[in-house]
Amino acid sequence: MNRHIVHIDMDAFFVSVERSRDPSLVGRPVVVGAVEGSRGVVASASYEARRYGIRSAMPAAQARKLCPHAVFLPGNMGLYVKISRAIRQILESWTPLVQMSSIDEAYLDLTGFDRCYGPVPGTVDRILRQVRDTFGLELSAGIATNKLVAKIASKAAKPSGLLRVLPGREEQFMAPLRLEEVPGVGEALSRRLSRLGLNTVGELRNLELSLLVKVFGVVGQWLYHMARGRGSLRVESESPPVKSVGNSVTFSEDTLNRRFLEGVLYHLAEKVGARTRRKGFVGRTVTIRLRYSDFKTLTRSVSAGVGTNCDTEIFERA
């Protein structure tokens, strides 16, 4: 039996939610998360804004320079989370095997459900239309025999499309992709592959497993299977256990005031401690992440033998 794994991706989710509330935003460049005077970063950008080079995680000031006439909105994370949960309920009404990989992405396993609903592409189309009709949002989907190919297919289907990669066509579909477009190939790995003259999945596919393992270790095994369109089949319907609790803050102005910074640090430690206690957890490792005005980021961690959820102990370790 062929596996039917579906990846559903909301198109510019935060922007799409804002447009459903204010239709006048449709067709205009919209940026969420980079309001006037903000020191934050772009959380979501409409396709109209992306034509100007604006991307998620871009500094707010840079986004404003690229497209000063865009509509900049602060966003409403509480609303986005609420709608994401409601979308999940719709997805779970079609199959119990739903894995939310982020607030705006989900994997579904529809293997065998063609006996209930009919051909899988038609079923996925109905699911997409149900979400659109209920929330007024746009979304895309990819169908394949594994999660990796399904995710890449949904990206290729954007915006507002549906793409199926037929069983046995995974290698052919993957071959022309540039390696940096493949989920899991980060900047560092992409640079290493490029230095070896490897720029596309098809070029990588020509290398033997033994050579890839020799050069890249365990990652070489993943590269070998990825180049052949193989990926994970398992859709985890349960949320993974929480492994960390964190809080952060972005200042409106730069500061070198140590007393002020220590006060902020204690405030963050209190928030982390309270959340940790509510969950009934303790933690051994405390991590601090510091970002400078040029967006250079520094991370430091310290671990102790005994776990804690005490505000003061968390602050002292920090």
Structural overview:
- With 318 residues, the chain is an alpha+beta fold.
- It is built from 14 helices and 10 strands.
- The protein has helices at 13-21, 47-50, 60-66, 77-92, 114-117, 120-135, 147-156, 170-174, 187-195, 201-205, 209-216, 218-226, 258-279, 311-317, and strands spanning 5-10, 30-32, 44-45, 71-73, 98-102, 105-109, 139-144, 162-164, 283-291, 297-308.
- It has a 5-stranded mixed beta sheet with strand order 5-6-1-7-8. A 3-stranded mixed beta sheet has the order 3-2-4. The protein has a two-stranded antiparallel sheet with strand order 9-10.
- The protein is globular, with a radius of gyration of 22 Å.
Give a brief description.
The chain has helices spanning 13-21, 47-50, 60-66, 77-92, 114-117, 120-135, 147-156, 170-174, 187-195, 201-205, 209-216, 218-226, 258-279, 311-317, and strands at 5-10, 30-32, 44-45, 71-73, 98-102, 105-109, 139-144, 162-164, 283-291, 297-308. With 318 residues, the chain is of the alpha+beta class.
Q: Number of helical segments?
A: 14
Low-confidence runs of at least 5 consecutive residues:
none
**C-alpha geometry:** globular
Helix/strand/pairing class, anyone?
Answer: alpha+beta
Which strand order does the major sheet show?
A: 5-6-1-7-8
Question: Total strand count, please?
Answer: 10
Give the termini distance in whole angstroms.
53 Å
The average pLDDT value, as a whole number, equals 90
User: Strand count, sense and closure of the main sheet?
Assistant: 5 strands, mixed
Please compute the radius of gyration using only Cα atoms.
22 Å
Q: What fraction of the residues are assigned to beta strands by DSSP?
A: 15-25%
Order of helices and strands: EHEEHHEHEEHHEHEHHHHHHEEH
Share of helical residues = 40-55%
